[in-house]
Structure formats: structure tokens, C-alpha cells
Amino acid sequence: MTSIIARALVALVAALALAAAAPAARAQSKEPAPPAKAQSKEAAPREKRFALVIGNAKYPHVPLRNPVNDARAIGQVLKRAGFDVTVREDLSQKEMRRAIIDFGERLRDGGVGLFYFAGHGLQVAGRNYMVPVDAEISSEPEVEVESVDVGTVLARMETARNRVNIVILDACRDNPFAHRFRPSVRGLASIDAPAGTLIAYATAPGKVAGDGTREASNGLYTGELVKAMAVPGLRIEDVFKRVRQGVQEASQGSQVPWESSSLVGDFHFVARRVAAKPPAKAPGLEVHEETRRDLGSLAVTSNVQGAEVSVDNQRIGTTREGVALIVANLAAGEHRIRAQAPGHPEWAREVKISGGERLEVSIDLAGRARPEDAGEMVLVSAGEFLMGSSREEVEDAIEQCRKLGNEATRCRRINENELPRHRVILDAFSIDRDEVTNAQFERFVKNTEHRTSAERQGWSTVYREIEGKWLGARVNGATWQMPGAAGPADPTHPVVHVSWVDADAYCRWVGRRLPTEAEWEKAARGVTPRLFPWGDTFSPERSNSRRRIGGTIPVGQRPDGASPYGARDMAGNVWEWVADWLDVQYYRRAPEQNPPGPEHGEQRVKRGGSWDSAPVNLRTARRGAADPISHDNLTGFRCAKSSASVSAGEPAPRGRPRP
After folding, report:
1. CB count, 10 Å around CB of 587?
2. Whose CB among 110, 216, 515, 612 lies 3.0–4.6 Å from 640's, allowing a Cys bridge?
């Protein structure tokens, strides 16, 4: 028995020795190892990609051949490139607006957003409009009413703050309503792309693109685009260069595609395929191929601990004292760094990294916003108030509106959205005592290099008296620095010619936010539903309104018009952006506790009236609204922030809400 056991042990030891020696033996004899699990030759996109693709062809008066085919072809290419794609065909105006709103909601997840439209497009007064299939347009002013402004798409994308946004407009076919009216210009207008955005046009500004031949299944532009987008390893700029070259050659120079870009960093529709390693040329010599890239590195530190830092919208970590966050092998070129920490304004900066070098960036969160950068605030106590207007007040406002020469239907539409009066309970918060001034906004611009919507577009709307009538006209070069014909901006006046996007960016920079509509109304009227911040009777000397001065005045010059909490100029001087989207039915379903406003919409709310307003438009319940990227010399803003508690010396108003 003992000998049997001994022989078994010897056999086991020999087997184990052979198993251990097998890999070495295979290596010595060049026997191939067991195959590894197959891997994809093409790296999948690391970030989410969303696309909305619309093709409109069935126009009743001038149908088009290829937009639906174009949309389907683009959709297929984008799906292969890793996009979550929604393709819609032959949409009405309502369907287009709803699709764009839904698209904006999906973009909130971050990453890359792409919008493509093929169909008829028009420009009016420098703005571009996509034409739905149900549009009925007989005059130029009706374009804005019947069509969909490209600016609504840009606003959704800019609000989402994606790393990359792409807008492609194969929408420059000739005017389908030429038999009804003749616009002053053809084609589409060139507009500056918001930060992180590329806008591509099928042809140059003011020119017209062809719809393709009867033999072709796609339009000329999109036919070239789907080929270029599918090429692995092409940067987005090179994709559109190929498209431009192909279209120019095919059209013999009559059609030249165009782009406007403010992209930072690289983007590829399809990643470069990595070549397989060739066999070794000699024993002991390792040979492989790799794509050459200029790489650098980044070292990030901050004077505030716990700051969340991202590079090109990708989180890299949280700052700690004495520790640097290192990003190695970063592609040479421009990158955007962002940092956020509780209690501090957001920090953002564009940096340029060179190949083979390390760039060190020190984030100064503690000193970004000084006391003079953000105005003094007043405290609004927690509790309930009555928001909106009674039916009697609305009917009176409608009558006053009609006496000003407005149509009855318009007067009813703009005042009935104050219904119903309803109970709202808010936590304590603080709000700027005064509207943000030109001096404060200038410090923001100098620190962040922010370019306003008006500066990017090259014009803004200026309201002024022309031949005895007060009219709004688009004035080239009008910006917050040059508000109009009156010369440079006065540092003490409220800033104007700022969009909702600009206002939101400033408030974030100073560590605040735009007030909700409910917060603004409570700060203006107190707990009782008074008509004006000072009471129920209009007093001309308490506000800058009725065009008596014809423009803005320094903030705080009407102290007798202050609200119960001490906020000044909440009636007149300038309309003020608030955080909410406009929904005329929201009051009927809004939560009672801290209503946040609708989740989506097409316009942002403005409150308080301006120097141009009649008393009926200065009421604390009056709701105005506009496109979030619109701007004029009537509109400014103030900021707010949440308050954890109410101090003992709060100037709380007296009384309880009355029915």
C-alpha cells in the first residue's frame, strides 16, 4: 500500500511540473496561446450622443423631393456613429416645437447634441426660420408666426451646456412663398455659434441650395455629408471640409457650404480604427503601430477644498489641499476647465495645451466674486402669500390694455395668464436690492470673457421714438456696452441688451441664481396681493415708467417705490428675467410649496415692466415673456439665492394674505 501511495504522489508531482512548464514550452516553441476574447476594432463613444433629425418635404404649394430621404440617410449614419437618434418626417409647426422641446429635455443628460433639418428655410431680419409643412405665409411678418426659429434650437442646446452641440441646416432651398411675397434676401443668414457649438449650412449666407436631381436619392449637400461622416478618424472640421469640396465640385462652384464654429477640443463622428499589430520581424524585437498624436498634460490645483473639476465636461476629480489633479496624455489644443464648490460661484476657463508640455492651472474659487461684484441683497422671510390676480383685477387690466389701443384678443391673452390667484408657500430667500448694473456686469465680462447673445449676433433691438411713434428696431452694434443712440452705457444704470442666457451666466458667476417667478412676485408684493410694490394705487413718482425719461435711470433712484422687503425698481426701469419657462396654465397645477416653474417651454418669463411701460404693465402680477436668447434695451435682471434661516432684524411686512 505504501509503495502505491508513493507512486501516486510521484505521478501527481510530475503532472504539476508539466502544467507549470507548459506556458514556457509554448513560448519556446512559438506555439500560439489560447485566443483572447475578440475586441471591437473601433472604440465606442465615451459620452452620450443624442440627435433630432427632421425632414420636411410634403409642402402643399412647393413640395420637395429629397428631405425625407436625407433625414433617413443622416439618421442611419448617426446611429452607426453611436447616436441615440430620433427621426421625424413632414412635421407641422406644433409637432416641430414639441420635438425640439423633447430633444432639449434629453440633452440634460450631457454629452453631444446634434440637430439636423432638411426642408424649406427662410430668413427675416437676420433670423433663420425652418418652415413646417402646414405653414401658411402670405407676408414677411407672418414668417415668425408660422415658422420655427432656429434660435429656439440653439437656446435648448445652450441651456443644456453640452460639450459639443451641432446644428446642420440643409434648409436653404428657394422661398416656397415667392408667389405670395418677395423677401428682401434669399437663403439663410449667418449667425455666430454659441460656445461649444458648430452650425453648418448647406450653402453660403444669402445663397440658395439645390434639392438634388431626380436621379439622386439625396440632396447634393446631404449626399456628400453622409459619405464624409462615415469616414473613421476624421475630425468634425475635416468632415465639413470634405463636404464643401464635394459640393463645390458637383455644383461647379454655384453652391458652397458654410460653417460657423466655436467648438473647443476635438470631435469625431466615427473613431479612428487602430491597425492590428504586425508579426515581429526578429526574435526579441517588439514591433507595433500607433497613431501619432501631440499629447500634453494638465495639473489642476485650487484654493478651495472639495471643488468638483471637469475638463471638456468630463469629471476629473475633487480638489484637496496640497494635492494636484493630473490629467495625462491630453490632446494638444484648447480645452475648457470648470470647477464648482458649494458656496462659491462657478469657475470656467479656456486653456491651450502644447504637445510634450505640462500646463499648471490654479483655480481661484475663493476670490472669484468680490463684494462689489454682487450687489447688496434683502431677505424675504419664509411663509405663504397669494400669487396671481383675481378675475376682477384681470378684467380691469384687459380694459386698461384696450384703452391703450391694443386688440381685445391680445389684451385678454396677455392678462388672463395671471389666473387663478392661488396660495404659495416659500422658504426664506434673499434677492438683490437693485437690478444688476453695467458696472457689475462689466466685471463679470472681464473675469470670464463672456460674450453676450447680442454681441454674437451683431445686433440688438432698440425701442425709441421714430416720427412720433415708439417702435422697436434691430440696430447693428447695439450691445450692453452701447445700448443705443445715447452713447456708452452708464455704469450706474441697469444692464440691458442681455438675454436670459446672459443673465443666468452672471448670476451663477456671483454664486447666485435667477429668482423663480414665485420668489420674484413675493419679493415685489409681500404677503398681501397689492397691485404695485408700494400699494394699490399707481404713483408716477415711484417708478421710472411711461416713457417720461425715455430710457433707464441709475438703480435705486426711486426709494419710495421699494417693495415691503426693500427691493427697489421692481416696477419700471427694466423688465427682469426670472428662472421660469412660461406656461399660461401653470398656475392651475403648480405645487403649493416652492413651485419650481414648468420643466420646459419656448419662452422665459420677464417681470416688472420697464421705462417704456404703462401702469397696467407694472403690476406685481403682470407676466411678460420672450425667447431666452432675445435681447433689447428694455430688459435686465436681478439675482437671488436660498437662505437657510431668517435673521432677527428682518424687515418682514405686516399682515396676512387676504382672499
Report:
1. 21
2. 515
pTM of the entire predicted model:
0.56
CATH architecture of the domain 49-261 equals 3-Layer(aba) Sandwich (3.40)
The average pLDDT across 98-109 equals 88
158 vs 137: CA distance, rounded Å: 29
Q: Which of 1-15, 325-339, 406-420 has the lowest mean pLDDT?
A: 1-15
295-368 carries CATH number 3.40.50.300: no
pLDDT tens-place string over residues 116-142:
999 998 887 778 899 999 998 887 778
* Cα–Cα distance, 526 to 659 (Å, whole number): 14
Asked if 182 contacts 239 with a C-beta cutoff of 8 angstroms, the reply is: no
Q: With a cut of 60, say whether residue 376 has pLDDT above it.
A: yes
Res 192: pLDDT: 64
HEC per residue, 547-616: CCCCCCCCCCCCHHHCCCCCCCCCCCCCEEEEEEECCCCHHHCCCCECCCCCCCCCCEEEECCCCCCCHH
**What whole-number distance in Å separates Cα of residue 289 and Cα of residue 278?**
8
Closest CA to 445 of 458, 436, 435: 436
3-state secondary structure of 619: coil
- Note whether 597 and 469 are within 8 A (CB): no
Q: Among the residues of 203-322, which ranges form H helices?
A: 220-229, 236-250
Left if phi > 0, otherwise alpha if psi is -120 to 50, otherwise beta: which for 388? left
Beta bridge pairs of residue 577:
606, 637
Residue-range domain boundaries for the chain: 49-261, 295-368, 377-448+492-642
Q: Classify burial at 291, counting beta carbons within 10 Å of its beta carbon; exposed 0-12, middle 13-18, buried 19 or more.
A: exposed
- What is the spatial distance between Cα 363 and Cα 347, in angstroms, rounded to a whole number? 8
Higher pLDDT, 298 or 70: 70
How would you class 458 by CB atoms within 10 Å of its CB: exposed for 0-12, middle for 13-18, buried for 19 or more? middle
3-state class (DSSP) for residue 379: strand
Q: Which class is 377-448+492-642 in CATH? A: alpha beta
